[in-house]
Amino acid sequence: MVHEVRYEPTIAVLLPCYNEEPTIADVVQRFREALPSATIYVYDNNSKDLTALRARAAGAVVVREPRQGKGNVVRRMFADIDADIYLMADGDGTYAPEDAPLLINTLLTERCDMVVGTRRGVTNDAGRQGHAFGNRIFNSLYKRLFGRDFTDIFSGYRVFSRRFVKSFPAVSGGFEVETEMSVHASQLKLPVSEIALDYGRRVEGSSSKLSTWRDGAKILWMFAMLMKETQPLRFFGAFAELFMIAGLLFMAPVLIEYFETGLVSRLPTWVLSVALVILSMLMAVTGLILDSVSRGRAEQKRLVYLSLSAGRPAGGAAKSLASERSQHAA
C-alpha cells in the first residue's frame, strides 16, 4: 500500500521595519491570520519608537539590525532565516497581507523563484509626486538597460524561493535592494512572475522613509554599478563611443588645416584629440576583457543557484516520490 506523503513548505514572512509603531501590530496580526503556519519575523532597524515592542506583543519574532538601511536588513534576514518560501513586505500597512496566499500559490504553481506584487496605480499616487515621477523614470530605464521582466522594480511585496534567497548576494545597503533583486533575476534568467495588487495608503502618523532626491541618486548610482558589473561591454562601450566622437570632433579641424596648409598650428588641440581617441580604444578593450569576466561570474552564480535545493516537494510531487520509492522497494 502506498501512503501519500505531503510536505508542508515552511514559510517565513519578513518585515523590515523602521519606526512603524502605528501599524506593525496590525500588519503582524493580519499576516498571522492569512498564513497561520508561517513564522513572522520583524527586523527592527534602529527604530526610535515602540515598533519592536508592538511587533513582539503581536506574536512576531523580533530581531534588531544595527546597520541602517533596508538593504542591510534584507541581507541579514536572508542570511539568518532558513525556510522553503520567503515572503517580504513592509511594516507600514500599504501591502495587504490578505494577498499573501495568492503570491505564494503563484510561486508554487508556476514554479517561480520570485513573484512580485506590482503596485496597482502607484505611478498615479505614490505618497508624493516626486516618488511617482521617479517610479516611471526608473522603471522605463530598467527596461532599456536590463530587460522587460519587471514593470515595478521598487515593489517591496515579493515572494522568493529558497534558491533565490540563498544565491542572492545582497550588496546594496538601502532602498536600492529591490533593484538589485530584479537585476539578479534578469541576469540569471530566473523564472519570475508579477501580480497586480492594490497599494494602500499610510495611516495617519506613519511617514515614508524614502527620500526622493537622496534615495533617487542612490538608485541611479546602483543602476550604473549593476550595469558595469553585468554588462561591462555595453557600459564601457558607451564611454568609448563618447570619447571617440569627441576626439574626432577635435581632430577634424586640425586635419583640415594640415591638408590645406601642411601646418599644425593648434598642437594642443591635436594632442587632446589623439588622447581622446586612445582613451576610447582603452575603454573598448576594457569592456571586452571585463565582458569575459562578467560572463564567467554569471556562470558561477548560475552554478551556485543550481546547487541549492529547490525546496520541499508539495502535494502531487510528494505523492509521485512516495510511489517511486515503493516500486523500487517492491
UniProtKB/TrEMBL annotation:
Q: What is the name of this protein?
A: Glycosyltransferase
| Top-level taxon of origin | Bacteria
Q: Which PANTHER family match?
A: RFBJ PROTEIN, UNDECAPRENYL-PHOSPHATE 4-DEOXY-4-FORMAMIDO-L-ARABINOSE TRANSFERASE-RELATED
Q: Which Pfam families match?
A: Glycos_transf_2 (PF00535)
In short, the EC number is 2.4.-.-
Q: Where does the chain cross the membrane?
A: 235-256, 268-290
Q: EC top class, in one word?
A: transferase
